[in-house]
Specification:
Layout: E1 6-9, H1 18-32, H2 39-43, H3 55-63, H4 69-84, H5 93-102, E2 106-110, H6 115-125, E3 133-135, H7 148-157, E4 164-168, H8 171-180, E5 183-186
Helix pairs in contact: 1-4
Length: 203
């Protein structure tokens, strides 16, 4: 078996749990209109760019209403900001970054979110300088569960896929890592802990 030369982190839900706040803010919006956004519906899109799912159209259909999208977006964003206030990196993230650096491993990040989103949060958390390579949806044709993000990161780090370990919190992210040929450690968060994961190497 190849020796490991790199570790690659997902971002949303893995380094910073934006996902629980994202879901709760949308579900609070749904409940305002007498509807419910189930975790089963939302969970299918966690770890992707969710471009195939329009939560506002789904709300209008579920509640049987004409939705004022501008007002709905403003409420949802304000609720998200409120839920995210004071959020810090998930436990263990900084320990693993320090250990990776101490062991001389390449450290990468592969995210289906936009670069501005990821780098903005990394700066807030004081973690941006840890990463040798960051690839986001701005760098690929297809996001997770497609393997392209992971393949781009290991290529930039100069390692073979089998020489890298991915850390993921979602089934879509884990599928992307395994499709790319990386080992995958899943670290589910409060929201993704109940979702059904496919193949992975360690939980």
């Amino acid at each position: 078996m190849a020796a490991f030369k790199a570790i690659v982190f997902d971002f949303d839900g893995l380094i910073l749990d934006t996902e629980t706040a994202e879901y709760r803010s949308f579900n609070d919006l749904y409940r305002r209109h007498g509807a419910e956004l189930t975790i089963e519906t939302w969970g299918r899109w966690i770890g992707t760019d969710a471009s195939a799912f329009d939560p506002y159209a789904h709300l209008a259909e579920s509640a049987g209403i004409e939705l004022d999208r501008e007002e709905a977006r403003a409420y949802r964003r304000a609720r998200y900001d409120e839920l995210m206030a004071g959020e810090r990196a998930r436990p263990g993230v900084e320990d693993y970054l320090r250990a990776g650096r101490r062991l001389g491993l390449g450290i990468g990040l592969a995210s289906s979110s936009p670069r501005a989103w990821v780098e903005g949060y990394l700066r807030q958390l004081g973690l941006e300088s840890w990463f040798d390579c960051i690839r986001t949806r701005d760098d690929v044709a297809k996001v997770k569960p497609d393997p392209e993000l992971y393949l781009k990161v290991v290529e930039a780090l100069g390692v073979a896929p089998e020489e890298a370990v991915a850390f993921e919190d979602s089934p879509n992210g884990a599928l992307a890592a395994k499709r790319a040929g990386l080992k995958c450690v899943v670290v589910p968060n409060e929201l993704t802990g109940g979702l059904a994961f496919g193949e992975y190497d360690l939980r």
